[in-house]
Specification:
Blueprint (H helix, E strand, L loop, with lengths): L8 H7 L4 H8 L16 H33 L2 E3 L2 E3 L2 H12 L18 H14 L1 H8 L2 H9 L2 H11 L5 E4 L15 E4 L5 E11 L5 E7 L10 E7 L5 E6 L10 E14 L5 H38 L1 E2 L2 E2 L4 H40 L4 H40 L10 H9 L8 H13 L2 H10 L9 H22 L4 H30 L4 H24 L15
Parallel strand pairs: 3-6
Antiparallel strand pairs: 1-2, 4-5, 5-9, 6-7, 7-9, 8-9, 10-11
Helix pairs in contact: 2-10, 3-4, 3-5, 5-6, 5-9, 5-10, 6-9, 7-9, 9-10, 9-11, 9-12, 10-11, 10-16, 10-17, 11-12, 11-13, 13-16, 14-16, 15-16, 15-17, 16-17
């Protein structure tokens, strides 16, 4: 019997991080529910033991139901029948298994039937599901919408919609439109009130993941005469109501089990979430931060699946009288894949911890006034979350594509055929650097962490000042040198006082910062488990070479030649 949690010791390692004590205490409000709820945790040890056991259940379902269904789901896909989406047989079976296990709405409070999970174990579950089937992870992972309703919805909305998730309700984020993809300020779907005060939605949404969901969050223009984000509000639409037509299910390259739909709303009744005009600038921005974390977890899961397929094939495939894993050209690729997974996973759970702390303080602030120290921590971790989530999404999604590419390459011609799972995994990986904000848009968001000094500050004031064992001094000195070089390179770009020029070099600068941060995170992992020393050393060496290349390009770049790169169709 396969178990995708138990067979990966890295997951338990990150679950047992020392930072979890603070997170659990905040999430459980010092275990205030233990006397009023029979399945509330008694103390920290009880909580951690419960997370561990529940993740074992997730791992079991993923290893023995979801993963075996992945190939048939990819071949069959969903279909549109009588204006409803019918899942592939395996997809329906997957969803039923997780619903029976109580794993929908995991992060919701117990009063709504949830498990009150913090972000870290919830994200861990998302990684495990994604390793089993990245397409199904989209359907399961959209329970993030429940968290948004819990965070911003009225009591009536919470009581109406949230208890349905534990019973298996599906969800969707209806954001994108034909003329509003990355630029959500251009959303035109209209929300207007009828004479009875009911909000009605009219317009088209496109590329909507799980578009025929039971519960949908819809971004719509509620303010007449507006053209920007200040005229947008967020609504919740119940599929039980009339007014929605599924125009088609898109025929996609990958994640084929996840239905991506074009929707037409015609006088569809909906309910306002939160306040008018804050749909994009507050609620969707919060939702997108969770989505970035979700896609990053999906990316790590895909990376893990691709690596394991490559390792298995390399051990079994014999050429020139021996398994190909013994050839340097192959074992170097495998080791780099493994090391990148360690790095992106450490960045994933560091970011999840930041998000956990600030979201918990936000929730507590709704219940009582925060103390001065608590308010300071809330702001600190929100700032860290804001700069880490786009960096994480960029790195994790790009790594998943690189790892899937190399894994297929190790398979050779066999990997190009549908006889091996890597062909599907390779196709599934491609979307991760596109949806929920392309890699280019993640750079736009992350560059603020460069120009504001946020990345440099956490490197210098936190990671660099920590105590590391003497045997790690040589690795720390490499990272210190990389940081000096990064600071010098940033100063050179910023000194040009040209925003376009900063944007031109932005990705190089963000990736330089990420290599340093991931290097330090791996060093911190070594302090807890010395078996991580080899991945840390290999990654830091790899990151150093990458940063040297980027720094050399920037430092040698003549800003006067910048104009030559601007595209002119006539030149």
């Amino acid at each position: 019997m396969a178990n995708f949690y138990i067979d990966n010791k890295d997951l338990k390692f990150h679950l047992d991080h020392p930072g979890m004590k603070k997170i659990v205490q905040l999430k459980e409000r010092d275990f205030a529910e233990k006397s009023s709820c029979d399945y509330a945790f008694l103390d920290f040890e009880d909580a951690m033991d419960s997370y561990d056991k529940i993740l074992e259940i997730v791992g079991d379902i993923c290893g023995n139901i979801i993963a075996p269904n992945a190939e048939s789901v990819d071949a069959e896909g969903p279909e549109l029948l009588n204006n409803r989406v019918k899942y592939a047989r395996g997809t329906a079976e997957n969803h039923e298994a997780l619903t029976r296990a109580g794993l929908i709405g995991m992060s919701l409070p117990r009063k709504y039937g949830g498990l009150n999970f913090p972000m870290v174990p919830y994200v861990m579950a998302a990684e495990i599901v994604s390793r089993a089937d990245a397409g199904f992870a989209n359907i399961w992972g959209l329970q993030d919408c429940a968290e948004t309703l819990h965070e911003f919805g009225s009591e009536d909305i919470k009581n109406e919609f949230l208890p349905r998730f534990n019973k298996g309700a599906t969800a969707a984020m209806d954001l994108t439109e034909p003329d509003a993809g990355s630029d959500l300020q251009a959303v035109q779907l209209k929300a207007s009130r009828n004479k009875d005060g009911i909000w009605l939605l009219n317009g088209v949404k496109r590329f909507i993941t799980n578009g025929d969901a039971d519960i949908s969050l819809v971004l719509a223009r509620s303010e007449e005469g507006t053209t920007d984000g200040r005229g947008l509000s967020l609504f919740v639409y119940d599929r039980k109501d009339d007014g929605l037509t599924i125009r088609r299910i898109e025929n996609k390259l990958g994640i084929k089990g996840s239905p991506t739909c074009e929707l037409v709303f015609r006088n569809a009744p909906a309910k306002l979430v939160g306040d008018r005009k804050f749909g994009l600038i507050k609620y969707v921005m919060s939702l997108m931060n969770s989505a970035r974390l979700g896609v990053a977890a999906q990316s790590v899961g895909i990376s893990e699946a691709a690596y394991r397929e490559a390792l298995k094939y390399a051990e079994e495939r014999t050429q020139f009288g021996r398994p190909i894993i013994y050839f340097p050209a192959v074992f170097e690729m495998l080791r780099k894949m493994q090391v990148k997974i360690h790095a992106q996973r450490s960045l994933l759970y560091e970011t999840a911890r930041f998000v956990d702390i600030y979201k918990n303080y936000n929730a507590i602030s709704e219940e009582r006034k925060l103390e001065t120290e608590e308010r300071s921590e809330q702001k600190k971790y929100q700032r860290l979350s804001d700069v880490f989530t786009p960096m994480l999404k960029l790195i994790a999604s790009e790594y998943s594509n690189e790892i899937a590419y190399d894994a297929l390459q190790i398979h050779g011609g066999a990997g190009f055929m549908k006889d091996f799972p890597i062909e599907r995994i390779y196709r599934d990986a491609r979307i991760t650097s596109i949806y929920e904000g392309t890699s280019q848009l993640q750079v736009v968001a992350a560059i603020r962490g460069v120009t504001s000094g946020a990345y440099l500050n956490i490197i210098r004031e936190s990671y660099e000042k920590e105590n590391y064992e003497p045997e790690m001094d040589y690795l720390k000195s490499v990272l210190t040198g990389m940081t000096d070089e990064y600071e010098k390179t940033v100063n050179k770009v910023v000194a040009e006082d040209n925003n376009e020029y900063v944007d031109f070099h932005a990705r190089r600068l963000v990736e330089m910062a990420a290599n340093i941060i991931m290097g330090y995170l791996l060093l911190k992992d070594v302090r807890r488990d010395e078996s991580y020393i080899k991945p840390a050393a290999i990654f830091i060496g790899y990151g150093k070479s990458q940063n040297l290349e980027r720094a050399a390009y920037i430092m040698d770049f003549d800003a006067r030649e910048f104009g030559s790169f601007k595209f002119n169709p006539e030149s």
